[in-house]
Amino acid sequence: MFQYYFVLGLRSLRRNPALTALMVLTLAVGVAASVATLTILHVMSGDPIPHKSDRLFVPLVDNGPPQNYKPGDEPNDNQLSYTDAKNFLNSKAAERATAIYGTSVAVEPERKDIGVFTARGLAVASDYFNMFDAPFLRGQAWSPADDKAAANVVVLGRKLADKLYGDTDPVGQRITLSGKQYQIVGVLDKWTVVPRFHRIIGSADGAFSDEDDMFVPFTTSIRNEMQRNGSTSCTDDIAPGYQAFIDSECTWIQFWFETRNASDRASLQNYLDSYAAEQRKLGRLKRNAANRLYDVREWLDFMKVVGNDNKLSAWLAFGFLVLCLVNTIGLLLAKFSVRAAEVGIRRALGASRREIFQQFLIETTVVGLVGGALGLALAFGALALIAMQSTALTVVAHMDWIMLLTTFAMAVLSAVLAGLLPTWRACQVTPAMQLKSQ
User: Fold this and answer.
1) Tens digit of pLDDT for each residue in 123-155?
2) 105: helix, coil or strand?
3) Is 68 exposed, middle or buried (0-12, 13-18, 19+ CB in 10 A)?
4) In a 10 Å sphere around its CB, with 0-12 CB exposed, 13-18 middle and 19+ buried, how is residue 201 labelled?
Protein backbone atom coordinates (compact mmCIF):
# COMPACT_ATOMS: atom_id res chain seq x y z
CA MET A 1 0.00 0.00 0.00
CA PHE A 2 2.91 2.34 0.63
CA GLN A 3 3.90 2.21 -3.03
CA TYR A 4 0.30 2.81 -4.09
CA TYR A 5 -0.08 5.77 -1.72
CA PHE A 6 3.27 7.14 -2.90
CA VAL A 7 2.05 7.09 -6.52
CA LEU A 8 -1.16 8.80 -5.40
CA GLY A 9 0.98 11.43 -3.70
CA LEU A 10 2.87 12.10 -6.94
CA ARG A 11 -0.41 12.39 -8.84
CA SER A 12 -1.83 14.75 -6.23
CA LEU A 13 0.99 17.22 -6.97
CA ARG A 14 -0.63 17.86 -10.35
CA ARG A 15 -4.16 18.12 -8.99
CA ASN A 16 -3.75 21.73 -7.90
CA PRO A 17 -0.44 22.97 -9.40
CA ALA A 18 -0.58 26.49 -8.00
CA LEU A 19 -1.28 25.39 -4.43
CA THR A 20 1.30 22.59 -4.67
CA ALA A 21 3.97 24.95 -6.02
CA LEU A 22 3.29 27.39 -3.20
CA MET A 23 3.61 24.63 -0.58
CA VAL A 24 6.83 23.28 -2.06
CA LEU A 25 8.36 26.74 -2.41
CA THR A 26 7.41 27.74 1.16
CA LEU A 27 8.93 24.57 2.54
CA ALA A 28 12.04 24.83 0.33
CA VAL A 29 12.81 28.42 1.31
CA GLY A 30 12.52 27.60 5.01
CA VAL A 31 14.71 24.50 4.68
CA ALA A 32 17.30 26.32 2.54
CA ALA A 33 17.65 29.21 5.00
CA SER A 34 18.04 26.95 8.01
CA VAL A 35 20.33 24.44 6.26
CA ALA A 36 22.64 27.12 4.86
CA THR A 37 23.06 28.64 8.32
CA LEU A 38 23.37 25.24 9.98
CA THR A 39 25.98 24.16 7.42
CA ILE A 40 28.24 27.09 8.26
CA LEU A 41 27.79 26.47 11.99
CA HIS A 42 28.47 22.75 11.46
CA VAL A 43 31.74 23.44 9.60
CA MET A 44 32.88 26.10 12.05
CA SER A 45 32.24 23.96 15.13
CA GLY A 46 33.60 20.67 13.78
CA ASP A 47 36.62 18.85 15.22
CA PRO A 48 39.42 19.68 12.75
CA ILE A 49 41.69 16.80 13.78
CA PRO A 50 39.51 14.21 15.58
CA HIS A 51 42.08 11.41 15.79
CA LYS A 52 44.40 13.46 18.00
CA SER A 53 42.44 16.47 19.24
CA ASP A 54 42.73 15.15 22.80
CA ARG A 55 46.53 14.89 22.52
CA LEU A 56 47.31 18.38 21.24
CA PHE A 57 47.59 21.09 23.89
CA VAL A 58 48.12 24.84 24.08
CA PRO A 59 49.99 25.91 27.25
CA LEU A 60 49.39 29.32 28.76
CA VAL A 61 51.43 30.87 31.56
CA ASP A 62 50.55 34.37 32.69
CA ASN A 63 53.58 36.67 32.59
CA GLY A 64 51.59 39.88 33.05
CA PRO A 65 52.45 42.52 35.68
CA PRO A 66 51.04 42.00 39.20
CA GLN A 67 49.47 45.48 39.35
CA ASN A 68 45.67 45.44 39.44
CA TYR A 69 45.62 41.65 39.08
CA LYS A 70 43.07 39.60 41.02
CA PRO A 71 43.21 35.80 41.30
CA GLY A 72 40.91 34.26 38.71
CA ASP A 73 41.36 37.03 36.13
CA GLU A 74 41.88 36.01 32.53
CA PRO A 75 45.51 35.56 31.37
CA ASN A 76 47.46 38.60 30.25
CA ASP A 77 47.50 37.25 26.69
CA ASN A 78 46.78 34.10 24.68
CA GLN A 79 50.36 33.86 23.46
CA LEU A 80 53.79 33.34 25.02
CA SER A 81 56.99 35.32 25.33
CA TYR A 82 60.12 34.16 23.51
CA THR A 83 61.64 33.09 26.83
CA ASP A 84 58.80 30.70 27.63
CA ALA A 85 58.55 29.39 24.06
CA LYS A 86 62.28 28.68 23.91
CA ASN A 87 62.20 26.91 27.29
CA PHE A 88 59.23 24.78 26.26
CA LEU A 89 60.97 23.77 23.03
CA ASN A 90 64.07 22.70 24.96
CA SER A 91 62.14 20.91 27.69
CA LYS A 92 61.14 17.72 25.86
CA ALA A 93 58.05 17.69 28.11
CA ALA A 94 55.96 16.00 25.39
CA GLU A 95 56.44 13.79 22.38
CA ARG A 96 56.39 16.77 20.01
CA ALA A 97 56.32 20.54 20.37
CA THR A 98 56.34 23.61 18.18
CA ALA A 99 56.42 27.36 18.56
CA ILE A 100 54.53 29.34 15.91
CA TYR A 101 54.54 32.95 14.84
CA GLY A 102 53.68 34.69 11.59
CA THR A 103 56.34 36.19 9.34
CA SER A 104 56.34 38.40 6.29
CA VAL A 105 59.18 38.18 3.75
CA ALA A 106 60.13 39.71 0.42
CA VAL A 107 60.40 36.97 -2.20
CA GLU A 108 62.99 37.70 -4.91
CA PRO A 109 62.27 35.27 -7.79
CA GLU A 110 64.94 34.25 -10.29
CA ARG A 111 62.33 34.48 -13.05
CA LYS A 112 62.50 37.84 -14.80
CA ASP A 113 58.76 37.88 -15.51
CA ILE A 114 57.93 37.98 -11.79
CA GLY A 115 58.95 40.99 -9.72
CA VAL A 116 59.70 41.07 -6.01
CA PHE A 117 56.60 40.45 -3.91
CA THR A 118 55.67 39.91 -0.27
CA ALA A 119 54.73 36.45 1.00
CA ARG A 120 53.15 35.36 4.27
CA GLY A 121 54.70 32.54 6.22
CA LEU A 122 55.15 30.84 9.55
CA ALA A 123 58.18 30.27 11.75
CA VAL A 124 57.77 26.80 13.27
CA ALA A 125 59.73 23.83 14.61
CA SER A 126 60.28 20.69 12.53
CA ASP A 127 57.64 18.84 14.62
CA TYR A 128 54.95 21.18 13.28
CA PHE A 129 54.30 19.17 10.12
CA ASN A 130 53.80 15.82 11.85
CA MET A 131 51.78 17.36 14.68
CA PHE A 132 49.17 18.83 12.37
CA ASP A 133 49.28 16.19 9.60
CA ALA A 134 50.58 18.55 6.94
CA PRO A 135 50.47 16.77 3.53
CA PHE A 136 53.66 16.92 1.44
CA LEU A 137 53.52 17.05 -2.36
CA ARG A 138 57.29 16.95 -2.76
CA GLY A 139 60.23 16.54 -0.42
CA GLN A 140 59.82 16.56 3.33
CA ALA A 141 60.17 18.70 6.45
CA TRP A 142 63.57 19.84 7.67
CA SER A 143 65.28 17.80 10.36
CA PRO A 144 65.63 18.48 14.12
CA ALA A 145 69.33 19.04 13.35
CA ASP A 146 68.30 21.95 11.11
CA ASP A 147 66.33 23.36 14.05
CA LYS A 148 69.42 23.22 16.27
CA ALA A 149 71.69 24.69 13.60
CA ALA A 150 69.16 27.40 12.67
CA ALA A 151 69.70 26.38 9.05
CA ASN A 152 68.42 28.48 6.15
CA VAL A 153 65.87 25.96 4.88
CA VAL A 154 62.26 26.46 3.81
CA VAL A 155 59.11 24.48 3.00
CA LEU A 156 56.92 26.13 0.39
CA GLY A 157 53.15 26.08 0.18
CA ARG A 158 51.74 24.73 -3.07
CA LYS A 159 50.43 28.08 -4.30
CA LEU A 160 53.80 29.77 -3.92
CA ALA A 161 55.65 26.81 -5.46
CA ASP A 162 53.31 26.78 -8.47
CA LYS A 163 53.72 30.53 -8.90
CA LEU A 164 57.52 30.40 -8.86
CA TYR A 165 58.31 27.01 -10.43
CA GLY A 166 55.19 25.74 -12.18
CA ASP A 167 55.38 21.96 -12.68
CA THR A 168 59.11 21.86 -11.95
CA ASP A 169 60.23 20.16 -8.74
CA PRO A 170 61.87 22.94 -6.67
CA VAL A 171 63.23 20.70 -3.91
CA GLY A 172 66.96 21.26 -3.57
CA GLN A 173 66.87 24.67 -5.27
CA ARG A 174 67.58 27.94 -3.52
CA ILE A 175 65.22 30.87 -3.08
CA THR A 176 65.97 34.40 -1.92
CA LEU A 177 63.82 35.62 0.98
CA SER A 178 64.40 39.14 2.31
CA GLY A 179 67.92 39.17 0.89
CA LYS A 180 68.99 35.75 2.26
CA GLN A 181 69.34 32.42 0.47
CA TYR A 182 67.23 29.47 1.68
CA GLN A 183 67.30 25.89 0.43
CA ILE A 184 63.91 24.41 -0.45
CA VAL A 185 63.47 21.03 1.29
CA GLY A 186 59.78 20.39 0.65
CA VAL A 187 56.52 21.55 -0.89
CA LEU A 188 53.17 21.10 0.86
CA ASP A 189 50.14 19.88 -1.03
CA LYS A 190 46.82 21.73 -0.77
CA TRP A 191 46.07 21.80 2.94
CA THR A 192 42.60 22.80 4.07
CA VAL A 193 41.97 22.65 7.82
CA VAL A 194 38.60 23.95 9.02
CA PRO A 195 38.74 25.56 11.46
CA ARG A 196 42.47 26.32 11.25
CA PHE A 197 42.87 25.69 14.97
CA HIS A 198 46.66 26.00 15.14
CA ARG A 199 46.66 29.44 13.51
CA ILE A 200 43.79 31.32 15.15
CA ILE A 201 45.83 34.24 16.50
CA GLY A 202 47.64 36.66 14.22
CA SER A 203 45.90 36.01 10.89
CA ALA A 204 43.38 38.36 9.36
CA ASP A 205 40.61 35.76 9.12
CA GLY A 206 41.46 33.95 12.36
CA ALA A 207 40.53 30.28 12.39
CA PHE A 208 39.29 30.47 8.79
CA SER A 209 42.37 31.96 7.15
CA ASP A 210 43.87 30.77 3.89
CA GLU A 211 46.95 28.54 3.64
CA ASP A 212 50.35 30.03 4.40
CA ASP A 213 52.87 30.59 1.63
CA MET A 214 55.97 29.15 3.30
CA PHE A 215 57.47 27.78 6.51
CA VAL A 216 60.93 28.37 8.00
CA PRO A 217 62.57 27.04 11.20
CA PHE A 218 61.69 29.00 14.31
CA THR A 219 65.37 29.20 15.33
CA THR A 220 66.31 30.46 11.86
CA SER A 221 63.72 33.20 11.97
CA ILE A 222 65.14 34.41 15.28
CA ARG A 223 68.73 34.31 14.02
CA ASN A 224 67.78 36.20 10.86
CA GLU A 225 65.52 38.60 12.78
CA MET A 226 62.65 37.98 10.39
CA GLN A 227 59.81 40.47 10.37
CA ARG A 228 56.82 39.50 12.51
CA ASN A 229 53.36 39.37 10.99
CA GLY A 230 50.79 38.98 13.73
CA SER A 231 49.70 40.03 17.18
CA THR A 232 52.21 41.33 19.73
CA SER A 233 51.40 42.45 23.27
CA CYS A 234 53.85 44.34 25.51
CA THR A 235 52.91 45.57 28.98
CA ASP A 236 56.16 47.52 29.63
CA ASP A 237 58.47 49.72 27.64
CA ILE A 238 61.41 47.85 26.15
CA ALA A 239 64.86 48.97 25.04
CA PRO A 240 65.62 49.39 21.33
CA GLY A 241 66.91 46.49 19.32
CA TYR A 242 65.83 42.97 18.40
CA GLN A 243 67.68 41.26 21.24
CA ALA A 244 66.00 43.50 23.80
CA PHE A 245 62.64 42.63 22.27
CA ILE A 246 63.05 38.85 22.46
CA ASP A 247 64.44 39.15 26.00
CA SER A 248 61.36 41.10 27.08
CA GLU A 249 58.05 39.83 28.44
CA CYS A 250 56.24 40.74 25.22
CA THR A 251 53.93 37.93 24.09
CA TRP A 252 53.84 37.11 20.37
CA ILE A 253 54.33 33.35 20.00
CA GLN A 254 51.76 30.56 19.92
CA PHE A 255 52.77 27.16 21.22
CA TRP A 256 51.54 23.57 20.92
CA PHE A 257 52.48 20.33 22.65
CA GLU A 258 51.59 16.86 21.43
CA THR A 259 51.54 14.04 24.00
CA ARG A 260 51.81 10.34 23.21
CA ASN A 261 48.46 9.59 24.88
CA ALA A 262 45.53 11.65 26.12
CA SER A 263 46.27 10.35 29.63
CA ASP A 264 49.62 12.19 29.57
CA ARG A 265 47.79 15.47 30.08
CA ALA A 266 48.23 15.28 33.86
CA SER A 267 52.01 14.90 33.62
CA LEU A 268 52.18 17.79 31.15
CA GLN A 269 50.17 19.94 33.57
CA ASN A 270 52.60 18.97 36.36
CA TYR A 271 55.52 20.04 34.18
CA LEU A 272 53.82 23.37 33.46
CA ASP A 273 53.23 24.03 37.15
CA SER A 274 56.83 23.07 38.04
CA TYR A 275 58.16 25.29 35.28
CA ALA A 276 56.12 28.27 36.50
CA ALA A 277 57.37 27.72 40.06
CA GLU A 278 61.00 27.73 38.84
CA GLN A 279 60.44 30.89 36.83
CA ARG A 280 58.94 32.66 39.83
CA LYS A 281 62.15 31.93 41.73
CA LEU A 282 63.96 33.74 38.91
CA GLY A 283 61.71 36.78 39.35
CA ARG A 284 59.29 36.08 36.50
CA LEU A 285 55.56 35.19 36.33
CA LYS A 286 54.83 37.45 39.28
CA ARG A 287 51.06 37.08 39.11
CA ASN A 288 51.26 33.51 40.39
CA ALA A 289 48.23 32.74 38.22
CA ALA A 290 46.94 29.28 37.35
CA ASN A 291 48.75 27.61 34.45
CA ARG A 292 46.40 26.36 31.77
CA LEU A 293 46.34 23.61 29.17
CA TYR A 294 43.75 23.53 26.40
CA ASP A 295 43.17 20.64 24.05
CA VAL A 296 41.90 21.39 20.54
CA ARG A 297 38.18 21.54 21.35
CA GLU A 298 38.79 23.52 24.54
CA TRP A 299 41.03 25.93 22.64
CA LEU A 300 38.36 26.54 19.99
CA ASP A 301 35.83 27.23 22.75
CA PHE A 302 38.25 29.48 24.65
CA MET A 303 39.00 31.50 21.51
CA LYS A 304 35.25 31.70 20.74
CA VAL A 305 35.66 30.43 17.20
CA VAL A 306 31.90 29.86 17.14
CA GLY A 307 30.57 33.05 18.68
CA ASN A 308 27.14 33.85 20.06
CA ASP A 309 26.31 35.73 16.85
CA ASN A 310 26.71 32.52 14.83
CA LYS A 311 24.50 30.58 17.23
CA LEU A 312 21.88 33.35 17.22
CA SER A 313 21.83 33.31 13.41
CA ALA A 314 21.14 29.57 13.48
CA TRP A 315 18.25 30.02 15.93
CA LEU A 316 16.78 32.81 13.79
CA ALA A 317 17.03 30.60 10.70
CA PHE A 318 15.14 27.81 12.49
CA GLY A 319 12.57 30.35 13.64
CA PHE A 320 12.05 31.25 10.00
CA LEU A 321 11.63 27.54 9.21
CA VAL A 322 8.91 27.28 11.88
CA LEU A 323 7.15 30.26 10.29
CA CYS A 324 7.31 28.51 6.92
CA LEU A 325 5.86 25.36 8.50
CA VAL A 326 2.92 27.32 9.89
CA ASN A 327 2.19 28.62 6.39
CA THR A 328 2.56 25.09 4.99
CA ILE A 329 0.03 23.81 7.53
CA GLY A 330 -2.47 26.38 6.32
CA LEU A 331 -1.89 25.43 2.68
CA LEU A 332 -2.28 21.71 3.47
CA LEU A 333 -5.53 22.39 5.33
CA ALA A 334 -6.83 24.16 2.25
CA LYS A 335 -5.63 21.34 -0.02
CA PHE A 336 -7.16 18.54 2.04
CA SER A 337 -10.42 20.37 2.76
CA VAL A 338 -11.43 20.32 -0.90
CA ARG A 339 -11.01 16.54 -0.89
CA ALA A 340 -13.58 15.92 1.84
CA ALA A 341 -15.96 14.31 -0.68
CA GLU A 342 -13.23 11.89 -1.78
CA VAL A 343 -12.52 10.95 1.83
CA GLY A 344 -16.24 10.44 2.53
CA ILE A 345 -16.65 8.08 -0.42
CA ARG A 346 -13.57 6.08 0.57
CA ARG A 347 -14.83 5.80 4.15
CA ALA A 348 -18.25 4.67 2.90
CA LEU A 349 -16.56 1.98 0.79
CA GLY A 350 -14.82 0.60 3.87
CA ALA A 351 -11.55 2.50 4.23
CA SER A 352 -10.55 3.00 7.85
CA ARG A 353 -9.39 6.26 9.38
CA ARG A 354 -5.94 4.70 9.74
CA GLU A 355 -5.74 4.06 5.98
CA ILE A 356 -6.88 7.62 5.23
CA PHE A 357 -4.27 8.91 7.68
CA GLN A 358 -1.51 6.86 6.01
CA GLN A 359 -2.49 8.00 2.53
CA PHE A 360 -2.53 11.70 3.34
CA LEU A 361 0.63 11.52 5.45
CA ILE A 362 2.51 9.84 2.59
CA GLU A 363 1.26 12.60 0.29
CA THR A 364 2.76 15.22 2.60
CA THR A 365 6.01 13.19 2.59
CA VAL A 366 6.08 13.48 -1.20
CA VAL A 367 5.70 17.24 -0.82
CA GLY A 368 8.62 17.13 1.65
CA LEU A 369 10.84 15.23 -0.81
CA VAL A 370 10.14 17.69 -3.61
CA GLY A 371 10.62 20.59 -1.18
CA GLY A 372 13.88 19.01 -0.01
CA ALA A 373 15.23 18.78 -3.56
CA LEU A 374 14.35 22.40 -4.25
CA GLY A 375 15.59 23.45 -0.80
CA LEU A 376 18.91 21.73 -1.48
CA ALA A 377 19.32 23.66 -4.72
CA LEU A 378 18.46 26.93 -2.94
CA ALA A 379 20.86 26.07 -0.10
CA PHE A 380 23.72 25.51 -2.57
CA GLY A 381 22.90 28.85 -4.18
CA ALA A 382 22.82 30.60 -0.80
CA LEU A 383 26.17 29.07 0.20
CA ALA A 384 27.69 30.13 -3.13
CA LEU A 385 26.55 33.72 -2.54
CA ILE A 386 27.90 33.63 1.03
CA ALA A 387 31.26 32.26 -0.20
CA MET A 388 31.62 35.23 -2.55
CA GLN A 389 31.66 37.68 0.37
CA SER A 390 35.16 36.88 1.74
CA THR A 391 37.98 34.32 1.80
CA ALA A 392 37.03 33.23 5.34
CA LEU A 393 33.45 32.51 4.29
CA THR A 394 34.69 30.56 1.25
CA VAL A 395 36.38 28.13 3.63
CA VAL A 396 33.24 27.41 5.67
CA ALA A 397 30.46 27.79 3.07
CA HIS A 398 30.46 24.27 1.67
CA MET A 399 28.18 21.30 2.25
CA ASP A 400 29.34 17.81 3.17
CA TRP A 401 27.43 14.50 3.02
CA ILE A 402 26.16 14.92 6.56
CA MET A 403 24.47 18.21 5.72
CA LEU A 404 23.27 16.83 2.38
CA LEU A 405 21.38 14.04 4.14
CA THR A 406 20.28 16.47 6.86
CA THR A 407 18.63 18.65 4.22
CA PHE A 408 16.39 15.86 2.97
CA ALA A 409 15.68 14.58 6.48
CA MET A 410 14.74 18.07 7.62
CA ALA A 411 12.49 18.66 4.61
CA VAL A 412 10.65 15.37 5.00
CA LEU A 413 10.33 15.71 8.77
CA SER A 414 9.10 19.29 8.38
CA ALA A 415 6.49 18.22 5.83
CA VAL A 416 5.32 15.33 8.01
CA LEU A 417 5.02 17.60 11.05
CA ALA A 418 3.18 20.20 8.99
CA GLY A 419 0.86 17.51 7.65
CA LEU A 420 -0.17 15.99 10.99
CA LEU A 421 -2.95 18.48 11.73
CA PRO A 422 -4.39 18.63 8.19
CA THR A 423 -4.24 14.82 7.96
CA TRP A 424 -5.99 14.41 11.30
CA ARG A 425 -8.67 16.87 10.18
CA ALA A 426 -9.16 14.91 6.96
CA CYS A 427 -9.73 11.71 8.95
CA GLN A 428 -12.58 13.33 10.88
CA VAL A 429 -14.80 13.55 7.80
CA THR A 430 -18.22 11.92 8.43
CA PRO A 431 -19.12 9.69 5.43
CA ALA A 432 -22.88 10.11 5.84
CA MET A 433 -22.68 13.91 5.80
CA GLN A 434 -20.51 13.93 2.67
CA LEU A 435 -22.69 11.43 0.82
CA LYS A 436 -25.84 13.37 1.72
CA SER A 437 -24.32 16.63 0.49
CA GLN A 438 -23.37 14.94 -2.79
Assistant:
1) 999 999 999 999 999 999 999 999 999 999 999
2) strand
3) exposed
4) buried
